[in-house]
Design brief:
Layout (H helix, E strand, L loop, with lengths): L4 E6 L7 E5 L6 E5 L15 E5 L16 E3 L5 E2 L6 E2 L6 E2 L10 H12 L9 E2 L4 E5 L6 E8 L4 E7 L11 E2 L4 E3 L5 H8 L1 H17 L7 H11 L2 E6 L10 E3 H13 L6 E4 L4 H6 L4 H5 L4 H11 L8 H6 L8 H44 L1 H7 L1
Antiparallel strand pairs: 1-4, 1-7, 2-3, 3-6, 4-5, 6-8, 9-14, 10-11, 10-13, 11-12, 15-16, 15-17
Helix pairs in contact: 1-3, 2-3, 3-4
């Protein structure tokens, strides 16, 4: 407890919201909060909490606010205090037992890695705060509690949360944007939209590393970061501005930046966009290289679309160069590619120069012929 006072139980009823549990070793009995799904229909909406009162019997307020101190008890919590007991600052009100993890091999953790790399939204995902503000609880509805976050400008955002879910915040608490307010596994798409690219990258790298570290497998972060970079390389256009894109279109980040630089240089309005997270399967199929995409999945569809749209493969990646038997543009192959580009540019410039010289020679020849024709007696007679 962060505050001192006298504990008062609310909605803590034995056999309804809590059950008595006896320790086989010590013989001591404690109250355990029952899961809402296992309660009767009448008690499903009850939320067991502990309130703190002062010596006069008034509710203790959170410092600097008018909100009373209310401590919610989550499912499975072991209540270590009694109703009416005097509480000191720092005293333990309830203990949450740690679930024993089963010993599993690397194959048991691989589905979690696949879930992360395919960017799947988990079932019963955690709810994150969409704005920074103060938490309050509104009027409850049937089976759900209303949580309201009011920001500094007075605007509020509401969440309807099932009563059996564990709320991690209390009335009057100030939460930051992206902070978890309801317990559960985090959704990577929510992390991206609320916290940004860097926080998402850190989350995915840490989650993947946890699976491998459990088995003593050491993997450098850079390998996972390369995959995350590919998952985040596309963006979705929210406002096309004066660019050639369409609202709702998904484009390569580098293409968008190049196009925005072009329209800004012309004094026009650039496109606005939002970051999106693609699973590795979808990211591989949405690459600009149709040779690379066709070598992965749905070969017929990819090649048919490329033929219909008249796509050109610039052979910028590794896979497409390997497929057609060329040096990959990396290491010594990169130096070769750059030298070839310089050579091709030199040949183009030389061809243009020769064409210009030939055109100039033709023009000079035509002028010389006209001068020569004018200098002959026939030409002089015609002029006279």
């Amino acid at each position: 407890s962060e505050y001192a006072g006298i504990a008062r139980f609310e909605n803590v009823e034995e056999g309804v919201t809590v059950a008595k549990q006896v320790d086989e070793v010590t013989g001591l009995s404690t109250l355990v909060v029952i899961d809402g799904k296992r309660r009767s229909a009448a008690s499903k909406g009850l939320r067991p909490v502990i309130q703190l009162l002062d010596e006069k019997g008034n509710q203790t307020k959170i410092a600097g606010t008018d909100h009373p101190v209310t401590i919610g008890l989550q499912v499975g919590a072991l209540i270590t205090v009694k109703d009416g007991q005097k509480i000191e600052v720092g005293e333990v009100l309830a203990r949450i037992p740690i679930e024993s993890q089963k010993t599993r091999d690397i194959t048991g953790g691989l589905p979690r890695v696949a879930e992360l790399f395919e960017a799947r939204s988990p079932k019963d995902a955690a709810i994150l705060a969409k704005v920074t503000g103060t938490v309050s609880f509104g009027k409850e509805t049937k089976g759900k509690q209303r949580l309201v976050i009011t920001d500094m400008d007075g605007e509020s955002s509401e969440f309807l949360i099932p009563k059996e879910k564990q709320v991690l915040v209390h009335d009057g608490q100030v939460v930051n944007k992206g902070e978890m307010i309801v317990e559960g596994p985090a959704d990577p798409h929510d992390i991206l939209h609320l916290k940004g690219i860097e926080e998402l990258a850190i989350y995915i790298v840490d989650e993947v590393q946890d699976v491998y570290r459990l088995q003593g497998v050491k993997i450098n972060d850079k390998h996972i970061e390369v995959i995350v970079r590919q998952m985040l390389r596309r963006v979705q256009i929210t406002n096309a501005g004066d660019t050639n894109f369409i609202t709702g279109e998904q484009v390569e980040r580098s293409k968008l930046y190049d196009e925005n630089d072009r329209v800004i240089a012309e004094g026009k309005q650039p496109a606005q966009f939002e970051n999106i997270l693609l699973g590795i399967t979808k990211a591989s199929l949405s690459t600009d290289s149709f040779i690379s995409a066709a070598s992965f999945q749905e070969t017929t569809r990819v090649l048919t679309e490329a033929a219909i749209m008249g796509k050109v493969d610039t052979l910028r990646g590794l896979k497409e160069n390997v497929i057609i038997g060329r040096l990959i543009p990396a290491g010594t192959g990169l130096a070769y590619r750059r030298a070839r580009k310089v050579r091709e540019q030199f040949e183009r410039d030389r061809a243009q120069m020769i064409a210009a010289e030939e055109a100039l020679a033709l023009d000079v020849g035509a002028v010389a012929e006209q001068v020569e024709a004018a200098a002959t007696p026939e030409g002089e007679a015609e002029q006279s």
